[in-house]
Amino acid sequence: MPSSEPFPGRALGGDGRAPNDPAADPEMLRHAIDRHAAYIYRLALSIVHDRSLADDVVQETMIRAWRWAPIEPDGDIPRAWLARVARNAAIGILRRRREELYGSDAIPEKESSLSPARTVEGRAALDQLRGALGALDEADRALIVLREIEGLTYEEIAETMELPLSTVKTRLFRARQQLKRALEAWR
Amino acid sequence: MRRHPSQQQLQAWLESGEPTRVGKHIDTCERCMALLEELSDLGDSLVAELTDALAAPTDVEFRTARQVESRLRNEAAFTAFLDLFTVGWSATKTILDIEEDSDE
């Protein structure tokens, strides 16, 4: 931690939390960051495709979690809740970025499919994979990360993405297939 | 679609989302859903590559803590400023005996 001083409690507890709410405890924030920052970062990076923006998403998510997260009996924050907040934060940050760049009239409905030729230089395996991921839309990338890397259950993903369970499965399976095809095209 | 689609039909559906009757069948068929899960499996090596491609920096916790702390301190300072302003205004009202309700 960068400082041994406690986090400023005033900025937390004043946002609708009861004074004795465990989530308003500064230690809870430290614990949440230690436990979940990397997880949120990976999900954010898969959506925003920019490490600096991914940092912003992690910060935003952690602050929201400190203020409003439901707390499980073991004192932790539900991962599905965190993922939903992170995804919404990432989409919001992307939207603001697009508005800054193009104005509000030119916001695309979803992440456009990126041309591999333009997004990847060199043939390093990781770059190829990032390029293949970029060919998927934002929701499909999030589905793959939540399931394949973070190991969330289909039910948790359905809660995170606010989608029916069967839709989660069929969409995830098609996204995985698209990823494999995109990767084949790269390699 | 009463009968289960063939593996080729399921594979074709994975690729294109067509035909829609296969999609409708899958929605209610656990057996076909399980087969699709198997057919679309990424494999351990690709998942490992994916994990590497999206790896978080090793200091992500430290940087996040520092940035969040700074942001919350700024917010706290702003709130304290507003509190001072509110207290100052209340004191001024008391000293000058300003009544907010002037209907009387």
Question: What's the multimeric state?
Answer: heterodimer
Q: Which chains have the largest interface? A: A-B, 46 and 42 residues
- Percent of residues of chain B in beta strands? under 5%
Outline the biggest β-sheet of chain A. Answer: none
Q: How large a portion of the residues of chain A is in β-strands, by DSSP E? A: under 5%
Distance between the termini of chain A: 42 Å
- Beta strands of chain B, count: 0
Number of strands of chain A: 0
Poorly predicted spans of chain A: 1-6, 8-16, 106-123
- Give the N-terminus to C-terminus distance of chain B in angstroms: 79 Å
Number of distinct helices of chain B: 5
Amount of helix of chain B:
over 70%
What would your notes on this structure say?
The complex is a heterodimer of chains A (187) and B (104). Chain A has helices spanning 10-13, 26-48, 51-68, 79-102, 116-119, 125-134, 138-149, 154-161, 165-186. Chain A is an all-alpha fold. In chain A, helix 2 runs antiparallel to helix 3 (51-68), helix 4 (79-102) packs parallel to helix 8 and helix 6 (125-134) packs across helix 9. The longest helix of chain A has 24 residues, at 79-102. The radius of gyration of chain A is 18 Å and the shape is globular. Mean pLDDT of chain A is 78; it is low at 1-6, 8-16 and 106-123. Chain B is mainly alpha-helical and 104 residues long. Chain B has helices at 7-16, 20-27, 30-39, 44-53, 60-96. In chain B, helix 1 (7-16) crosses helix 3 (30-39). The longest helix of chain B is centred in the last third of the chain and has 37 residues, at 60-96.
How do you describe this structure in short?
The complex is a heterodimer of chains A (187) and B (104). With 187 residues, chain A is an all-alpha fold.
Keywords summarizing the entry:
heterodimer, A: mainly alpha, 9 helices, about 65% helix, globular, disordered N terminus, B: about 100 residues, mainly alpha, about 70% helix, about 0% strand
